[in-house]
């Protein structure tokens, strides 16, 4: 069905070619996925040129392994966007982290808002009879000046591909959203997108159902804790049980096995050690963790935990967790205190740091402030044993040789940590870490773990 066109609006940004869209290869999935913010992705999708984009979630990855035709269609797509908690977990299996979850339900309305400002039109193809029409009505209501070029259902309306192509081209649509379900929508676009005049084609799954209100989306609180799949399962248990229960288990198992096959036996041993020690420590130390949290809360205002961006293996940033041992404005004061560092090199450390709280001095003395990093180990971002995780500003100031310490995961303890910590100069720390990175074994890790107990008791360099 064709809709009346609105006057177009010019946008000079349409004539500017954006920088290349960042991607990241995920070994667990054997896929290159977009690694960008929603704004970056949208700017690239709407830039001059022709693009075909698919969203990849756990279900899509399962189908890709079983269906050669779908796998071929995915391989020929211009852009693959990460969708859902499954892909995020698969990335974490190799210590990676994607910038954003670019699911279609959130990204496409944002994209259409910008498209409306640029005077672009959109055609909706798919869904049960009436669904695309209802979705178009919702979009017109929520996005000012959006031009709907036309709609067509994905049942009887999809029977004649030639008629579909002719109608879309006749509508003058700049963007085509295809909602025929996975894998039919991707296969349809693979076969026919080159014959469409539209510059952007997107396979959007259940988007029309969400927009039309035939499927109710999970509340924001459920989405925030990344349990939207459980909400969908509760809505349609018969239809989605196989996909979300058996399918998610198969997806994660296959991803884990793929990572294991790529890993050396030593890597598998070390990861087993990390998981065993961290899980055991979390259980045994839970009373101490609870008492520490209470003491921090009573002693000073502010959150119990301190979160900060650190640089992990191969330069990948991650969020480190520690018990807060400083005042809440500690980061703002850091620049003014750099001149009082007791340590040579790029890593700041001061015995008389005024930002440290009363409880902070105690938990630092016994390294209790480091214990929440157990969570980082469980998430695969850190190891029990490894170099100290550096700040991004420190890494920027590294001499070339020091970058070698990023070849392994950072650790809660390590050669530097048991050798005097802050009393060890930066250059000496780098040499220690390079030695560990070049010769780390399971036996070395076990020795360093046992030596950690002595280092904690002595408190040498802990301030």
From TrEMBL:
Transferase found in the keyword field: yes
> Which branch of life, at top level?
Bacteria
CDD domains xref list: Glyco_transf_WecG_TagA
**GO MF terms on file?**
phosphotransferase activity, for other substituted phosphate groups
User: From its record, what is one biological process in GO terms?
Assistant: polysaccharide biosynthetic process
Residue intervals of the Bacterial sugar transferase domain: 270-457
InterPro entries named in the record:
Bact_transf (IPR003362), WecG_TagA_CpsF (IPR004629)
Key words of the record: Exopolysaccharide synthesis, Transferase
Give the family this protein belongs to, as stated in its UniProt record. Answer: Belongs to the bacterial sugar transferase family.
- Matching NCBIfam families, A to Z? wecG_tagA_cpsF
The name this protein carries in UniProt is UDP-phosphate galactose phosphotransferase
Which species does the entry assign this protein to?
Thalassococcus profundi
